[in-house]
């Protein structure tokens, strides 16, 4: 039985714990928070037996096999580093770090320690995404021409909140924009070139709306992310013979295949979970198999995500 430790008592951590009920061969063993009262309240809500004040206390517990890290982005590097140094496998929320150099350091440490480290890009494990890629590879939309993805929700400006605080790596690019970039890469494994970026940047230096256009090989890429407004949150994988439409692509539960305006195929996973259990099951399976890297979200994937984010950040600064 694999014992999970939950690092953070926030909303995403709660959703992840909810989905652990659908994962075979594991339990949520403990939760750590900076405030022990937050940890206790979270533990009571999710029927977790053990609570820890501070993350290091959890990392020191020999009963913990793997930790799930859902702290703000700027804390990820230190949290992952400390967990690996304590001998724990790690699943860390995206983006796993805030720079290429940070990611390279963590990947090197994980390999040295022979520990499993995976970025929690849960979207890559969703059955609807897998089905959409299958349709693409089967040639059902012909030659791939365009990939369009956006992800945005209006979030009220609060300068001290996680989303808008530059000291907490705030901004829509890291918080939401990683999804369109990662989804585009899921379907087109080619460098992003001819990049053009239009962004709104607040006086504190945090971006709250970003549009990105470019090419990946011969495929045109059109992406967007926003804290200003709700976007369609849909991915369109467009070929010269058809279109794959993936609603709510970041948490996809269905996809549709069109030939012009005619719906010719549809897939729905009909899951009861939120969808986090697919990545959690991957972690459990890999730990039981003694593997230290996932081929679905590999270390190279995470490096590519960081490189793409760095490309866009650089373009925003040039505006």
Q: What would a concise description of this structure say?
A:
It contains nine helices and 14 strands. It has helices spanning 11-19, 36-46, 55-59, 76-85, 100-113, 127-137, 172-187, 277-289, 299-318, and strands at 2-7, 26-33, 50-53, 66-69, 89-92, 117-119, 144-152, 192-201, 207-216, 219-226, 235-239, 243-246, 254-259, 262-268.
Describe the structure in your own words:
Helix 4 packs parallel to helix 5, helix 5 runs antiparallel to helix 9 (299-318) and helix 7 packs across helix 9. Strand 13 (254-259) and strand 14 form a beta hairpin. The longest helix is centred in the last third of the chain and has 20 residues, at 299-318. An 8-stranded mixed beta sheet has the order 8-9-10-7-11-12-13-14, with helices on one face. Strands 3-2-1-4-5-6 form a 6-stranded parallel beta sheet, with helices on both faces. 34% of the residues lie in helices and 28% in strands. It folds into 2 domains: 2-121 and 275-295, 3-Layer(aba) Sandwich (Rossmann fold), CATH 3.40.50.720; 127-268, 2-Layer Sandwich (Dihydrodipicolinate Reductase, domain 2). It has 319 residues and is α/β, with parallel strands linked by helices. It is built from 9 helices and 14 strands. The mean pLDDT is 97.
